[in-house]
Protein 1
Amino acid sequence: MAADIYDWIAQLKSNQWVLDVGSGEGSFPGAEFSCRWLALDDDPAAFTTTVRYNRVTGRGHQLPVADGSIDLLICHHALEHLAPLDQTLAEMARVLKPGGQCYISVPNGHGLCDAVYRLVFLGGGHVNRFRKDEVVSLVEQRLNLRLAEWHKLYSSFVYLRKLMELLETPPPKLPRRLLAISWLPQSCVGFVQRTLYVGTRFLDRWLRTDLAVYGWAFFFEKPSGQPVVEQPGYVNVCLHCGTGQPAAGAPRTRWWSCRCPNCSLTYPYTRPFRSTR
């Protein structure tokens, strides 16, 4: 089985299609691929950079794609935003080829990270809340696939840093909650983010909780009879850009910090524990 989504993408041939639903600028901009790629988002302003994708503006419940034309369907941190959910899943089932693959990542709608996000951003556009078993069952039933692999997604609470960037030039009619936060020094918000990052990982290691887990990544294929495999998740996730990396390859700057391969900034290093790497 494939180790991660990059392996799945790399295995596709030049005549095969990826559909990236709710793509924004592209769910995996660093992926190497020779296949054809269609990025779909309902906001034309999301397509701001020059990339190798074909792009189309559209909605998840009305996909402008032919029946049975997609070999790999990607919905990366998007399904929680897409409504109506039943119609969106029906559309995904319609466009996916028989024997096609599907990658879906979603937040734990009942976890600490999503709770803080909803508190700060007044919901933040999350219209669907998922539990792990619920989302797996939904996708298996509606897309006629079976879960092959999955792994946990660890948070760096990076949305708090994005909040600081937002508050540098606050938009008009800022909600009261954000207006109150905007009076705080940026260093306070940064301190909260770092404390959540380090504290949740410490508790997860010693109390076997999942407070630092943002959500899950799921890999669905046609039924094969093989057991479902849990892959280790990246516990080291950049505070500045949200990029995860394996601990074994994380460039160390000190014994307690490492450097992000994406933005080159440093953040606290965490040794792997349980199902992490």
Note: The two ends are 18 Å apart (CA to CA).
Protein 2
Amino acid sequence: MLFGELDFPEIVDVYLRFAALTALSADLGGSLLLYSGLDSNGIATAIASNIAGAGSLGLEPDAERAKQALRAGVCDFVVNNLDEALRILKNEIRKKRAVSVVVTAEQSATVAEIIERGVQPEVLVFPVQKLMERGARLLPEVVETPGEVVTWSVSSEPQRWVPVMDGLAAAAIEQHDARARWIEDAPHYLGRTYAGQRYLRMTGAEADAFLTAAREAIKTGAIQVEVSVARNGKTVSITS
């Protein structure tokens, strides 16, 4: 998915990166994540980190690419040195608020400065031996995400009706784990690039409950447009 020169990941890739982060810790507020590059994986990491509530520091030497990411809502700040990045991160991380900062600097020199200054990320997306010796954990590329793939959309007025569907999905989840945070916070951080797109892993019972609730909402007029729900790629359309 291209935006200018940015290669956006599919929503499933953002979800899987979010799942990997929250598998490390259910509460990442106050944590710092370090990643490199605003390629598809880097973009997925920045967005997923914000959804998970962490602070992230991205290293992107291409200033124009970083500015494009800022305009597209991938990151919150773009700065040109580590000092500026740390000022922002320290304040937001202290308050346990999600924030995504990109510094337009060369990776190896910036990593060396991070080590020298004693900055300690909790999570790394690429291995740095010294930081790992200090306790940083390497984010796994793949994490087990059981359940059915469930997506949903509406035929019109997505700003009005998709949030109603989101509420039904949240209510259908039997255990309010990290997926509840995904449902609540992902729409804000995914932004216009993924407008109207929804993705979740559900158990069979949860998916059944979600479909039943959607049908009831259509029947009672709580939702007044056609709804489409796909389970593992098989789409069910619900109309009044």
Note: The first strand starts at residue 2 and ends at 3.
Protein 3
Amino acid sequence: MSTSTAFAKARAEGRAALVGYLPAGFPDVEGSIAALRVMVESGCDVIEIGLPYSDPVMDGPIIQAAAQQALDAGIRTADVLRVVEAVAATGTPTLVMTYWNPVERYGVERFAQDLANAGGAGLITPDLTPDYAPEWIAAADERDLDKVFLVAPSSTDERIALTTAASRGFVYATGIMGVTGTKQATAAGVAPLIARTKALSPKGGADLPVGVGVGVSTGAQAADLAAYADGVIVGSAFVRTLLEHPGDRAAGLAALAALTEELAGGVRA
């Protein structure tokens, strides 16, 4: 299933999609596969798999701690793609969220092809803007991969129009100004950005869903945001749940399932 199909299915059910994030290789490669599969089974419509990186400008301390564990354990891009393949095999659209440097070092064409071969749906690229992405856009378009770019409350109308025109799958609206896991997004705070993004999207946003991330951690928040957004993106809350259960994988997975079910109930409220 493609990302756009998952959003369309959620829309047909009168709800927002739940997008869940974890970094690959946390707590280890097999552990991240198990955790992501639990998130799928418990209600995530789309999965984001983080490619751990040493200079994550958007990530707050919670995601940084998890990514550092993966890096310390020797995670490689090939491992990330193995996680993608395992999760995509569930039939759930599976994107990689990555900073641009690792893709450039791996080789843009090679990365795009290997991602497609693994069944990946596309990339979310927080530090890459469309005007600096011609190589990625060409490689993605050749393989029908999603290109998810970001807009923020500070984005100008011109920037939002440029970003939505280049995005495919959905556009990622950051609910707050700041890094992940440090502040809470509010529906009132992010509603103007969602409205601007939809108004400035091709066809008035009819074909491009808007997902809201950064600052969502509870079912109640998910429900509030789902009244405005097509998708609710959660990352730090999932990571925190696993960090709170070091050395007890069964307890961590049970807590992860409970949180996913709460959030899935929120987007359906």
Note: The chain has one domain: 3-267.
